[in-house]
Design goal:
alpha/beta; Rossmann fold; seven-stranded mixed beta sheet; flat
């Protein structure tokens, strides 16, 4: 039955081409001509061209809905629209004309999607790297990120090994979440990127894949996967151990819990010897809490005693993540953010709008208006005094350019706090909101976004901003996918006021950090 549907779908298109050749007035043909002109830069998407493009996309959608025999022609045109502008802005608050056209084409494809159409896209577009245009195939892969087509597995795996880096990355992204041993093996290879031929950012996709699944009974890769996770939990590199805490999620309790407890013990000893360990100990503790529903602190002996009582008593099933209860973190707070770390860089807005009144005084109440800048400094010193001299920190201020205080982490002791107060006396809110430059400075990233881990001591970055940024938010996801697999940095975001552009939310949520919005 499925084969007949697919044949019927293809024949409708073939018959339409034979019996009803396109005319100059045909909107699908006119859209294809315009797409060629746009792709070859004969025209630009501006002025009347935007109006014409929108009209042709709408008319092509109408042709598809009223004349099913034109389905193939209309679908290919919509895939080409989508593919041409696949990388246009994803910021919903500031959509470009390119992004709006892409979204309209994608919505049309989704509205007409069924099982036969899905198989046709896979077999007649995705699986034909030699004849189908790259942008068209990339559009299919984008659709397959959220639409499951069983026959797409092998073509996606093949596409994920092509030479073109865009196709490799897109296909890997579409494979995330497939519960299949062949796919699991593929993503285990990505964990070793760039040795796998992928860039380091692809390891983040592998992490996302494994963190959201449960291995099926009889999985042939589970033993190898479990061995890797257990070894990495106690690796000397805290970043490798941090990744292993995420990757342990699909492993059963009877294996994962003892491994986590042992890792907690080892990292406690390393911390007592002066190694950077607090962040990873917090992460291990939270993993144990998620599996057990218990908050037993960071003493491994408490967890060992609990596990000794629990073994053999229903411990084989992985427990759901516990909701509610206290989340482990530091006592020190910055606008309510309590990072699970003692190695922190603050990236703080010093643009002109930080001179606005803060909180209730922004509405006119109160005689002496307190400024956003004053409140940020007060919160900063409150945090640093509370976290104590064993913690280490640095400060980056951003406005039109970033300004770095020390360029390395220093102890949060009285001497350094006094020096910071003196430096901040000469910092006056002014200029623009170049947030991205501030973030890159905090990570010691170069112009290509590459991070020198020998210089990066921090494992946590707290970013404060009070408005829309100069760059928008579309850079965040690609940036995080590039830097997080190696740096393991967590971003926490503080947004003052309601004029943000999603940058803070995306930084925090994309790195598993916290986000707060403060009135002001």
């Amino acid at each position: 039955m499925r084969v007949r549907l697919l044949i019927a779908f293809l024949m409708l298109g073939l018959c339409a081409r034979a019996a009803d050749p396109p005319t100059a007035a045909d909107p699908v043909s006119r859209l294809n001509v315009l797409l060629h002109q746009l792709a070859t830069r004969q025209v630009r998407l501006q002025g009347d061209v935007i109006t014409n493009a929108r009209s042709l996309v709408a008319d092509t959608r109408l042709v598809w809905s009223i004349n099913p025999s034109r389905a193939v022609d209309a679908a290919l045109a919509m895939l080409d629209v989508m593919g041409l502008y696949l990388d246009a802005s994803t910021d919903p608050s500031a959509l470009t004309p390119e992004a709006e056209l892409r979204n309209e084409a994608e919505n049309t494809l989704r509205a007409n999607f069924d099982a036969a159409f899905g198989r046709w896209m896979v077999s007649e577009v995705l699986a034909l790297p030699g004849s189908a245009p790259l942008d068209r195939r990339l559009a299919v892969v984008r659709l397959l990120e959220t639409i499951n087509v069983p026959s797409a597995k092998l073509p996606l795996l093949s596409a994920a090994r092509e030479k073109d880096p865009r196709m490799r990355r897109a296909a890997a992204r579409a494979l995330v979440g497939w519960n299949d041993d062949v796919v699991h093996s593929f993503f285990m290879g990505l964990l070793e990127a760039p040795n796998s031929g992928f860039d380091r950012g692809s390891a983040w996709l592998a992490e996302k894949h494994f963190s959201g699944l449960r291995f099926e009974n009889g999985s042939r890769v589970l033993d190898e996967y479990t061995k890797r996770v257990r070894n990495d939990l106690v690796a000397s590199d805290w970043r490798k151990a941090s990744r292993a805490v995420v990757l342990q999620t699909p492993i059963a309790n009877e294996t994962a819990i003892p491994a986590l407890i042992e890792a907690l013990s080892i990292w406690k000893a390393r911390g007592e010897a002066g190694a950077q360990s607090l962040r990873i100990r917090f992460e291990i503790q939270r993993a144990l809490r998620a599996r057990s529903g218990r908050s037993l602190g960071m003493d491994p002996e408490e967890w060992r005693a609990w596990w000794a009582l629990m073994r053999g008593d229903g411990a084989r099933a992985v427990a759901p993540v516990t909701q509610g209860g206290q989340v482990e973190s530091t006592e020190a707070s910055f606008f309510g953010i309590r990072p699970a770390s003692d190695r922190v860089v603050f990236v703080i807005d010093r643009s002109g709008s930080m001179n606005f009144a803060f909180g209730d005084q922004a509405t006119g109440r109160g005689e002496a208006a307190r400024k956003r800048w004053s409140e940020a400094r007060s919160q900063l010193f409150g945090f640093l005094e509370a976290i104590g001299p064993k913690a280490r920190f640095d400060i980056v201020l951003f406005h039109t350019i970033p300004e770095v205080w020390r360029g390395k982490l220093v102890a949060a002791d009285k001497e350094n706090l006094a020096a910071l107060r003196e430096w901040l006396k000469f910092q006056i809110p002014n200029g623009g909101t170049q947030l991205r430059a501030g973030v890159e400075a905090a990570l010691h990233a170069d112009a290509n976004g590459s991070v020198d881990l020998a210089l990066l001591e921090a494992d946590t970055v707290i970013v404060l901003c009070d408005g829309e940024t100069a760059e928008g938010s579309s850079w965040v996801e690609p940036f995080l996918e590039k830097v997080l697999p190696t740096t393991r940095v967590v971003f926490h975001g503080v947004q003052i006021g309601g004029q943000g552009d999603e940058t803070m939310v995306r930084l925090a949520r994309g790195s598993r950090g916290d986000y707060v919005r403060v009135d002001g």
